């Protein structure tokens, strides 16, 4: 199971149900770093999962401005019993194309921080991935804010509201289409 961990899992599932998970990946997004409410829920989820002996991985996408914060995040979540997985950024960010735009030092740091086949593959091939898809945000996947009803392509495009299920009739969403990536 993979999730952004923004909803308290123990409010959705019983402990017995959570224990049945073999492993889970929680993706720690910039919104968790920027919003204490979502950060607290994320940490709560890590604590619940590790206490119930669920193999828990925290994914941390290494945006250039997040690289310096990685050691503190790694210490924080490994202390709670999770495994850290820094991932290369794949795509456009601040006018640059990643992972190609990483400096050699940044690339080496990320690879040395966690040596997985996935991380190494992203570092070497980026978008030219015969076995992986490009980002589908806003085309077949969306970011949904339950409290406000906002639907966005992803948390990196929170400014771009596609639909609001609390204030708009569902029929207004039907047929809305973004350009395919």
Give the overall silhouette: flat
Q: Strand content of the residues, in percent?
A: 15-25%
What about the largest sheet? 4 strands, parallel
Number of strands: 9
Mean pLDDT: 80
Q: Give the distance, in angstroms, between the N- and C-terminal Cα atoms.
A: 25 Å
Secondary-structure element string? EHHEHHEHEEEHHEEEH
Continuous helix count: 8
Instruction: Please estimate the helix content.
Output: 25-40%
* Structural Rg: 17 Å
Structural category: alpha/beta
Number of domains: 2
Low-pLDDT ranges: 127-133
Query: Spatial order of the strands in the main sheet?
Result: 1-2-3-4
Describe the structure.
The protein has two domains: 114 residues, no CATH class; 31 residues, no CATH class. It is built from eight helices and nine strands. About 4% of the residues have low confidence. A hairpin with a 5-residue loop joins strand 7 and strand 8. The longest helix has 16 residues. The chain is α/β, with parallel strands linked by helices. The protein has a four-stranded parallel beta sheet, sandwiched between helices. A three-stranded antiparallel beta sheet has the order 7-8-9, with no helix packed on it.
């Amino acid at each position: 199971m993979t999730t952004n961990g923004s909803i308290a899992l123990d409010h959705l599932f019983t402990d017995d149900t959570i224990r049945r998970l073999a492993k889970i990946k929680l993706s720690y997004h910039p919104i968790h770093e920027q919003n204490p409410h979502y950060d607290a829920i994320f940490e709560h989820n890590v604590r619940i999962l590790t206490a119930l002996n669920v193999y828990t991985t925290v994914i941390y996408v290494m945006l250039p401005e997040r690289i310096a914060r990685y050691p503190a995040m790694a210490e924080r979540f490994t202390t709670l019993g999770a495994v850290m997985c820094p991932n290369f950024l794949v795509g456009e960010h601040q006018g640059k194309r990643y992972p190609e735009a990483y400096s050699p030092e940044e690339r080496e740091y990320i690879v040395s921080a966690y040596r997985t086949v996935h991380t190494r593959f992203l570092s070497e091939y980026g978008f030219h991935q015969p076995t992986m898809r490009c980002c589908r945000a806003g085309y077949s996947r969306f970011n949904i804010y339950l409290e406000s009803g906002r639907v966005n392509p992803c948390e990196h495009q929170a400014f771009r509201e596609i639909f609001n299920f609390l204030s708009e009739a569902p029929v207004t969403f039907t047929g809305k289409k973004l350009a395919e990536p």
